[in-house]
Each structure stands twice: as C-alpha cells, then as structure tokens.
Amino acid sequence: MFSLAQLTHFVAVAEELHFGRAAERLKMTQPPLSRQIQLLEKELDVQLFDRSSRAVKLTPAGKAFLSDARRLLQQSERAALSVRKASAGRSGTLRVGFTGGSVHSGLAMLLDTARATLDDVEVDLRELVTMGQLEALSEGSLDIGLVRPPVTRPDLSSRTLVRESLIVAVPRNHPLAQLDRPIDITELHGANLVMYTPIESRYFHELLSSVFHESSVAPVITQYMTQIHSIIALVNLGWGLAVVPESAGRMHYDGVLYQPLTLPRPALVELDLVWRLNNDNPALHRLLSALDSN
User: Fold this and answer.
1) Could you give phi then psi for residue 274, rounded to 5 degrees?
2) N or C: which terminus of the chain has fewer CB atoms within 10 Å of its end residue's CB?
3) What was the pLDDT predicted at 101?
4) Using one digit for the tens of pLDDT, what is the confidence trace for 6-24?
5) Do 125 and 145 lie in a common domain?
6) Taking residues 169-177, what's their average pLDDT?
C-alpha cells in the first residue's frame, strides 16, 4: 500500500509539473523523488505522469488520482488535529462549512450564536462552494453548512437562514454609477457583466438568467467566476458590472459603487442552513436549538 509520504510527493509533482521544482519544494533531491513516484505507479499499476516530452504532464489516471490524493492528505491532517485537540482537553468540535458570499450575511449570525452557546466547543470553519458542502455533509466530514438552495438530498435537512435583495456593483467611472436612483434591470441590456459560473455557482447563475430572461435583458458576459468576492474584484478592475446579493455591498473597493436594482417582481437571494439528519454531534443540536430560539 502507498504511504502518505508518497501521496505528498505525487501532489507536489502534480502541482509543479516539474520534478526539479517539486524536489526543491519538498526539500529533497530529484532522484529519490523520481524513485518514490515510480514506486507509487508500480503500487497502483498505472502511469501517473507523461514523461515523453520535455514538459511533465498528468495522465488521465493521474488527474483522477490527484483529487483523491489531496483528500486523503487533508483527512490525515484533520485526524492529527483532532488528536491534538483531544489531548488538550477540548470536549468537541463543530465543523462548519460556508460559501465565500455568506461571510457577509449568514456566517456572522451563525458564529455569534455558536460563540454564545458553544463556549466549550471548537468551531472548525471550512470555505467550500455549495456542492462541495453537500458532499462533505453527506459523507460526514461537515456538521453544518451555509449553502444556496435547493437542498434535495434525502439524507440532509435544511431551512432558510437569510433572504436578501439583489443590487448592482458598478465601476466608479461607469455612467450608471452616477445615478441618484435605483438601476432598472433593463439598463443592463448590452452592458458588460461579470457572471457566475453555471456549475460551481449554479444557484446564482440560474437566478440571474431567469431575471434577465423575464425582462428580455441580454448583457455582454465578460467573465464567468465562482466566488462573489472575485466577481467584485473584477468589477473594481473595470471588467464590467455585477449583480450581487445586498450583503456583498459590505465589500469595500475604491473603484466600486453599489446601486439598488429595480425588478418587475422581487427576486430574493436565499441562504440555507443544512445538516445531515442522522448526525449525532451534541454541539450541532445545541446550536440548532439556539438558532430556533433567536
């Protein structure tokens, strides 16, 4: 069976795509690194790297193995952390997932309640997109998450934590930034827009696509991004406008102004609290009871 050291070596080469740089990163010489990769390939009975050209490339098998190798290394690190926490006399851990956008809305509410209720519990925060959180909750590596709906997995339970309006992030030098009234959705027709990716940010992509379709608005998409903070950063660089949740207006950039958005009918952004039904972590149930009473 392969070792954690071999996984570490493989991940370093896969990320650097260069044995010399990977060896330097691992503080070892190149020959033993190459030997460890060969032993790993022999153990797995697959070729992980294509060494037929000057550039080192991952084979399809190597690409498939990379995500598993990273996950195994992360799990080993978390196991070591859990042991250290137990030896320090801490009574428990609550593993909380959150999306980048929830930092400015639901996460603050959740953490305030956790601090007030779970003073004997270590809160372990992990930033993941919605799909990553749902998978982690199902497999038991997260206790509770802040995700975008819908949550359709039968092993998970959820409830809405936050509902908020949409606003427009506008480059400071854009004509729409000078308005002393809300921006009408029709004014985004033909405008450059930074949009959410259809897979990793499916909730926002589908919500905005529906909003644009209902108003017969067709913006010009300049870039697709996953995280709200990255989208705002591109607005700051002048890549276009962006339609974001109201809470995103707390992100301050010198080159970005936030304007209200007028729609034919409300389109609220929702953030759900989600957990696994058979999770027996006492800290989770204490937190849920505290949130119910708020």
Assistant:
1) -140, 145
2) N
3) 84
4) 999 999 999 989 998 999 9
5) yes
6) 96
Check residue 91 and give its pLDDT: 61
| Total count of domains within the chain | 3
d(CA 200, CA 130): 8
Strands 192-196 and 220-225: parallel
Task: Answer yes or no: do 253 and 278 share one domain.
Answer: no
User: What is the spatial distance between Cα 124 and Cα 95, in angstroms, rounded to a whole number?
Assistant: 5
Tokens representing residue 109 in the block: 């509410």
pLDDT computed for residue 88 by the predictor:
39
The separation between the first and the last C-alpha atoms of the chain, rounded to the nearest angstrom, is: 51
C-alpha 288, offset from chain centre: 23
Q: Which two tokens stand for residue 220?
A: 């010009």
Q: What pLDDT sits at residue 53?
A: 63
CATH number at residue 229: 3.40.190.10
| Mean of per-residue pLDDT scores for the chain | 91
Task: Domain of residue 48: give its range.
Answer: 4-84
Give the residue from 84, 110, 139 where a domain finishes. Answer: 84
Which of 67, 84, 101 is a domain's end point? 84
Same domain, 209 and 65: no
E strands in the chain: 49-50, 57-58, 93-98, 122-127, 144-147, 156-164, 166-171, 183-184, 192-196, 220-225, 242-245, 256-262, 269-276
> Which pTM value belongs to this model?
0.65
Per-residue CA distances from 13 to 5, 17, 66, 171, 172 (Å): 13, 5, 10, 40, 43
Residue range 219-240: mean pLDDT, rounded: 96
DSSP structural state of residue 247? G
Same domain, 143 and 280: yes
**pLDDT score recorded for residue 1:** 82
Pair 155, 275 in one domain? yes
